[in-house]
């Protein structure tokens, strides 16, 4: 991959898609992580800093201070409009209103946080006649490692054809702060969550595994080539297959033959 040309191509994509949508600007959730930092940099290059709104949405007692600082640093360096919306009270209102909710249900609660962030981004997009710029990368999309209608609920996916390792490479090229590039990727949906621990494999390895599968290798050959354990192979393949639905629009019950 020629990372510099890939950057130009993504910038053009953002410009074209925004124009096609008939708007001038975009809204981006800026977490303090690398995916949203890179997306913000690319969107500013495409649309201009005055047309990008960054929104940081921390959760009390969960979002680390370094994320708040890193998100602010991204916005400051880019000179974009930047807002902070604390999601803690929205989350509490949801959980207090759902009789069966439980603080211990980290899976449902974690995905709810991603969906609250999505709703907040669309609130601003509606209000400002802008689109929501997605931050999903190729690794996350192939694995379905995102919340359906949460961080997956966006208008465009500019970095969706870049593996996570390529996201790092492009971020270094653009001069994104080193601490953001080297920080362990995490969705921060529950305490101590990290992507690589939840996935049971490093991004370095899973990216190479996915690339081999896309080249037509069998999971077994890809596993042997990379020296993965059979548990790693099976869990990645299972994740891909279980999440294929996230890459499609909801299936419609077709009634054509009855007309
Ligand atoms: N075959 C099928 N056809 C149609 N729909 C199907 C389906 N199977 C499940 N579903 C639906 O999908 C739901 C499950 O999907 P979903 O709600 O997304 O939930 P799920 O995939 O179980 O969880 C999301 C995963 O993404 C991770 N994540 C989330 C957000 C950000 C990041 C990050 O890296 O930043 C990572 C998170 O840690 C977790 O592992 C089911 O409850 C069901 O409604
Ligand atoms: N605290 C937050 N404030 C604003 N947006 C958030 C927050 N947490 C998550 N998001 C949104 O959800 C997206 C998905 O999170 P994800 O963790 O995959 O990306 P990231 O934080 O940018 O990078 P990394 O994967 O390296 O942590 C983010 O890119 C961002 O757009
Ligand atoms: Mg993150």
TrEMBL record:
Top EC class of this enzyme: ligase
Residues binding ATP: 29-36, 135, 164, 186
Family: Belongs to the NAD synthetase family.
Gene Ontology terms describing biological process: NAD+ biosynthetic process
Binding site for deamido-NAD(+): 115, 148, 155, 245-246
NCBIfam families: nadE (TIGR00552), PRK13980.1 (NF010587)
Lineage start: Archaea, Methanobacteriati, Methanobacteriota, Stenosarchaea group, Methanomicrobia
Biochemical pathway: Cofactor biosynthesis; NAD(+) biosynthesis; NAD(+) from deamido-NAD(+) (ammonia route): step 1/1
An example Gene Ontology CC term for this record: cytoplasm
Gene3D superfamilies the UniProt entry points to: HUPs (3.40.50.620)
Protein name per its UniProtKB record: NH(3)-dependent NAD(+) synthetase
């Amino acid at each position: 991959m020629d990372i510099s040309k890939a950057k130009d191509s993504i910038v053009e994509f953002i410009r074209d898609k925004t124009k096609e949508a008939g708007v001038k600007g975009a809204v981006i959730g800026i977490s303090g992580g690398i995916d949203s930092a890179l997306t913000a940099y690319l969107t500013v290059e495409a649309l201009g800093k005055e047309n990008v709104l960054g929104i940081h949405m921390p959760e009390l007692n969960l979002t680390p201070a370094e994320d708040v600082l890193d998100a602010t640093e991204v916005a400051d360096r880019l000179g974009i409009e930047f807002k902070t919306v604390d999601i803690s009270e929205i989350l509490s209102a949801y959980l207090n209103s759902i009789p069966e909710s439980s603080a211990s249900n980290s899976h449902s609660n974690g995905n709810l946080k991603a969906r609250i962030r999505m709703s907040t981004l669309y609130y601003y997009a509606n209000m400002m006649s802008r689109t929501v710029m997605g931050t999903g990368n190729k690794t996350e999309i192939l694995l379905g490692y995102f919340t359906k209608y949460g961080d997956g609920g966006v208008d465009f996916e500019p970095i969706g054809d870049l593996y996570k390792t390529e996201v790092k490479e492009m971020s270094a090229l653009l001069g994104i702060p080193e601490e953001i590039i080297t920080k362990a990727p995490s969705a921060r949906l529950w305490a101590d969550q990290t992507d690589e621990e939840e996935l049971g494999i490093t991004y370095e390895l899973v990216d190479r595994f996915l690339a081999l599968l896309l080249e037509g290798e069998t999971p077994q050959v890809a596993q042997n080539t990379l020296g993965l354990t059979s548990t790693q192979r099976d869990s990645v393949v299972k994740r891909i297959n279980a999440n294929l639905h996230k890459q499609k629009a909801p299936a419609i019950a077709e009634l054509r033959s009855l007309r």
